[in-house]
Amino acid sequence: MQNSDVTNLRALRPANLDLAKPLRAGGFIVTLFGDVVAPRGGDVWIGNIIAFCAPFGISETLIRTAMSRLVSAGQIAGLRQGRRSYYRLTDAARQEYAQAGTRIYGDARARHWRLVFCPAGDAAALCGSDTLAGHVALNDEIALGPDDARVPEGLCAFTGPAQGSEAALRAMAQKLWNLEDLAQEYAGFLDLAAQINALMPLTGAEALEARVLIVHAFRQIALRDPRLPLAALPSDWAGLRAREIFAQTYLALSAEADSHVAAAFEGAEGPLQSHTPAGEARYALLRESLSE
To answer: Which CATH code, of 3.10.450.50, 3.40.50.2300, 1.10.10.10, 1.10.10.650, is assigned to 3-103+180-291?
Structure first.
C-alpha cells in the first residue's frame, strides 16, 4: 500500500468524530479497549495505546488526560509492572461493553413494543439515559420503546406486537423519534465506510486502524438507534444498509487486524492473542446479521 493511502486513511474525519478533545479521545480509547482488549480478556500496555492513537492526531498528553478521567470514572483500572503501566476495562465497564456489543455487532432488531411504567414520574430522565435507551416518554410515568430482554430494576413493563397498518406505525415512529437526523448520521457512516473500502486491501496496522475507526463511528450511532421494528421504519431506512456495510467491512479487515494485534500489542502477561472464543463469537454475530 502506498504511503499516500495510509495518509488518506488516517485523515478520515467524519462529522460526528472530533478526536481533538480529551473527552473525545476518551471515547476513542474506550472503543479501542472494547474492540481489541475486551475480547482478549486482559490488559494492554499504555505504550500501545499511545502508538495506536498518534496517527489520528491524539497526543500522548491527551491520552494520559483521558486515561486519568476514565480511571476516575471507573471505566478502566491500571496495573503497574516494573516501569510499565498496563490498563484494563473494569468489570462494570466490561459488562457494559458486552451488552453494547450485542447491539453493535449483532443488532437483533426488536419485534415488539414495550410500555414501561416509571412510578417515580421520571420517564423523561430515564429515556435520556442508558436505563431506557431508545425509549421516548409519552408522559411523566409512561415510556414507549423497543422490547429489550431486561427490564430495569424498579420498573415494570408490558410488551407485545404493535397493532395497526405499516403507514400508521411509520407515522407514529416519525413523530416520536428523530429518525431523520439518525438517517443522516447513518449516511455519513456509509460515506466513511466507502472511503475505507476504496483503500482496501489494507494490511497490518492500517487494517486495525480502519477497523477501530469504523467501530467508533458506527458505535456512536448504533447505540442511539431505538432499534424499532422494521414495520415502523421508512422503506429506505439507511440504518439497514449501514449495518450490512459495517459487518462486511469489519469482517474483511479482521484477519489482518487481528494478526497485527498479536504482533504489536502487549499485556502484562505477554503479547495479546490473535484469536479468542469471544472474538469468534463476535464474528458469528456479524455473519448472522448478514444472513438475516
So the answer is: 1.10.10.10
**Residue 3: band (very low, low, confident or very high) from pLDDT cuts 50, 70, 90:** very low
- The yes-or-no verdict on residue 118 having pLDDT over 70 is yes
Q: What does the H/E/C string look like for 210-247? A: HHHHHHHHHHHHHCCCCCCCHHHCCCCCHHHHHHHHHH
Given this model, what pLDDT does residue 205 score? 92
- Please tell me the pTM assigned to this model: 0.86
Annotated domain spans of the chain: 3-103+180-291, 112-160
pLDDT single digits (tens) 187-209: 999 999 999 999 899 999 999 99
